[in-house]
Amino acid sequence: MVRKETHTIKHLIQLQDLIVARAQQQASMATARLQQLDKNIATLAGELPVELKTHFNRLLQKNIEAIVPITGENCSGCGYALTKTMVNSVHAGNELNRCPNCTRILYSPDVPLTRNTPRRRWGDPVKRGIDRFSSPELMIPSLKGTTKEEILLEMCNNLREQGYIENCDDLHNAALRREAIVSTAVEHGIAFPHVRGVEGGGLTLTLGISKKGVKFGADGNKLSKIFFYMVIPTAASAFYLKLLSGLTQSFSTKEAREALMTAKTQEELWKILTKATKKTIA
Ligand SMILES: [Zn+2]
Questions:
Q1: Domain spans of the chain, in order of start
Q2: 109 CA to centre of ligand 1 in angstroms
Q3: How far is the CA of 212 from the centre of ligand 1 (A)?
Q4: N or C: which end of the chain has fewer CB within 10 A?
């Protein structure tokens, strides 16, 4: 019995990862691998007990995340404070627990991915557009890495150096695991690497440019040069998809992409990003 529910939870997480990956591919206009993803989703969903599948599908209609990790003693989907008994039960994994508020299925993350909660002071101006998720110090106009691993680590390290996260080990591994599901590299040398389910703070975006380009996606002949790396709390998943499609739209023209490639300093890159996303990101 014990083994069975742990297995079910793993199964659901795997299915959830595929469903979100599919939505990400769609939001970034990458349609080449949708059929394969659909096939894998159908296979995994088909293995679920009928009742659970129905509940899961019903949840998915309301939100992109139907199974969510708990963060401390809260449901990371809606923030509801759970009872001690339920938290213990979620950690034990002997049965499927549902959030009493949003009815999402809850699980205990193996390694909680945390980021530092940003300090917000009274009187700080309200931020708008891309300013809400990023800042000049998160711009890397010239990435040094020559492989996928190096690029991802370099961007993660920048987040750490700027005080957004404590350490890179778990986050970096999570970003690599995500790339293994289906590459986040899309057309025109753009890639959207990311880590979902991160605790603490809001969605954070760091932008890195590789002037030479690196082999990032499944198609070894194409080079990726523009990397939008994002750290996403569970509650921001739906919004993340909007941001993704806004960025895709902003950099759908050659001129917009070339502008990014020519930036020499962090300030320049920041200015170009801000200007290009003015209309697409609210
Ligand atoms: Zn909830």
A1: 2-107, 129-276
A2: 15
A3: 44
A4: N
In CATH, the architecture of 2-107 is Orthogonal Bundle (1.10)
The per-residue pLDDT for range 20-50, each reduced to its tens digit, is 999 999 999 888 889 999 999 999 999 999 9
Report how far ligand 1's centroid is from the alpha carbon of 182 (Å).
28
Ligand 1 center from residue 73 Cα (angstroms): 11
Distance 1 CA to ligand 1 centre (A): 25
| 56 Cα–ligand 1 center, Å | 14
The CA 235 to ligand 1 mean position distance, Å, reads: 10
Question: What are the tens digits of pLDDT across the range 132-164?
Answer: 899 999 999 999 999 999 999 999 999 999 999
pLDDT category at 1 given cuts 50, 70, 90 is very low
Domain 129-276 adopts which CATH fold? Mannitol-specific EII; Chain A (3.40.930)
Write the DSSP string, the chain. -HHHHHHHHHHHHHHHHHHHHHHHHHHTT--TTHHHHHHHHHHHHHTS-HHHHHHHHHHHHH-S-SEEEEETTEETTT-PBPPHHHHHHHHHTSS-EE-TTT--EEE--SS-EE-PPPP--TTPPPP-GGGGT--GGGEESS----SHHHHHHHHHHHHHHTTS-S-SHHHHHHHHHHHHHS--B-GGGEE--EEESEESS--EEEEEEEEEEEE-SS-TT-EEEEEEEEEE-GGGHHHHHHHHHHHHHHT-SHHHHHHHHH--SHHHHHHHHHHHTTTT--
User: Is 129-276 the same fold as 2-107?
Assistant: no
